[in-house]
Write a structure and sequence with these properties.
Layout: H1 34-48, E1 56-59, H2 66-80, E2 84-90, H3 97-108, H4 118-129, E3 133-139, H5 148-156, E4 160-166, H6 171-174, H7 177-183, E5 186-189, H8 195-209, H9 217-230, H10 233-249, H11 257-276, H12 280-291, E6 295-296, H13 297-306, H14 313-325, E7 329-334, E8 342-347
The structure holds adenosine-5'-triphosphate and magnesium ion.
């Protein structure tokens, strides 16, 4: 019957490879980031000539390809050569010297870590890495609790490059002088994509993730426009997946305007729900920020305590970071001034982050 011609059959899907929409998927090409990648490669290049590499500080707002660009370079490096070992570590998960050293052991294939202290493990790493050269990437580096290992690497690994990635431009000013003077990094700022570039990335990703011809042009434009408005490619990937699923739920072979619109509606609902779903204490912190937007973190902590907040300053800080990560609030780091370094916390009306608490 003609009525069913446009319907998906049981074994059909609009998706060709849905995992290409995962946030950690590294595409074959990364348009608009070639220049930054080339620059990163020039920092690594001296290592191939038996010299020490250059260090690199990368900063820029969330969801614009910082992690993906460097992982792409590392993957390329791994495929091309055995001379330089790439070691990528996310400091959100590995936030102490001991955890980082363990992770390095894991990446370089040293398994006998049990019952060994940090110093012993470091000696082993040193021996293994000094046979060749290494490039480290410490992503989300502002989440580190201590920086001792950076000092250790700078002192004892003779041929290496250290890359650091963060959302905070001023981060480098805050680190210990002892490390800073040895690090003297090059800097690259990743800028947000303009609407045309955003659309280009969305179009490119559609080719990886969906069967040819399933996306209606208007639907695609709607997703691209919303992504450009949110300035975060992750939200675009989320919308692509949601729109695809909305089409499949209706057994539609095409992803149409209405499916893209449904995905956007869900994204908005999702944000609203997320803020009401916060656990009580996080909610109290968010409300405190909302009522006192633009204050310093120390002042906010005082007010929060007056409101009977139960957390220690350290936990409070961590929750502030999480709220920021999820875009409920904005944090601006200031350096210097009479009171030294501090963070200014502001309430953000745009709740749009997609990661779970
Ligand atoms: N130029 C690009 N081409 C293709 N995909 C891209 C590009 N830029 C970003 N992406 C995709 O957008 C998503 C977010 O990028 P990424 O994880 O690198 O963000 P980030 O800048 O590291 O953000 P954060 O600061 O939050 O960690 C990833 O899935 C990535 O593959
Ligand atoms: Mg990242």
């Amino acid at each position: 019957m003609a009525l069913f011609d446009n319907m998906l059959k049981a074994d059909e899907s609009v998706f060709k490879n849905e995992t290409a929409l995962d946030f950690d998927f590294i595409p074959k090409i990364m348009p608009y980031r070639e220049e930054q990648q080339r620059y990163a490669a020039t920092c690594i290049h001296p290592l191939f000539q038996g010299r020490n590499g250059k260090n690199l500080f990368i900063h820029g707002p969330p969801g614009i390809g910082k992690t993906a660009a460097i992982k792409w370079v590392f993957r390329d490096l791994e495929e091309e050569s055995d001379e330089v070992v790439p070691i990528y570590i996310n400091c959100w998960q590995k936030n102490t010297t001991y955890k980082i050293i363990l992770e390095i052991c894991d990446v370089i294939g040293y398994k006998f870590t049990q019952n060994k202290k940090t110093d012993d493990l470091f000696k082993i790493i040193k021996e293994m890495l000094n046979k060749n050269a290494a490039v480290f990437c410490f992503d989300e580096v502002d989440k580190l609790d201590d920086f001792d290992f950076i000092y250790m690497l700078l002192e004892d690994i003779y041929k290496c490059s250290i890359f650091m990635i963060t959302n905070f431009k001023d981060f480098i000013m805050d680190i210990d002088d002892r490390i800073k003077s040895r690090l003297t990094p090059e800097t690259i700022e990743f800028k947000q994509y303009n609407p045309k570039e955003t659309e280009g990335i969305i179009r490119e990703r559609i080719k990886y993730a969906f069967n040819p011809g399933v996306w209606d042009e208007d639907a695609l434009k709607i997703v691209a426009t919303k992504t450009a408005e949110l300035k975060d490619i992750r939200s675009g990937l989320h919308l692509l997946r949601q729109a695809g699923q909305a089409a499949e739920a209706e057994a539609s072979r095409k992803i149409e305007k209405k499916h893209a619109e449904e995905a956007i509606r869900k994204l908005d609902e999702f944000s609203v729900k997320k803020s009401t779903d916060l656990e009580d204490d996080t909610r109290l912190i968010l409300d405190t920020v909302k009522e006192n937007s633009g204050k310093k973190i120390g002042e906010l902590f005082k007010i929060y305590k007056e409101k009977d907040g139960k957390n220690t300053y350290k936990t409070f800080q961590r929750k502030i970071e999480k709220l920021e990560k999820n875009r409920f609030i904005e944090v601006t780091k200031t350096a210097g001034g009479a009171e030294g370094n501090t963070s200014i916390i502001s309430y953000s009306n745009v709740e749009k982050k997609l990661t779970d608490f």
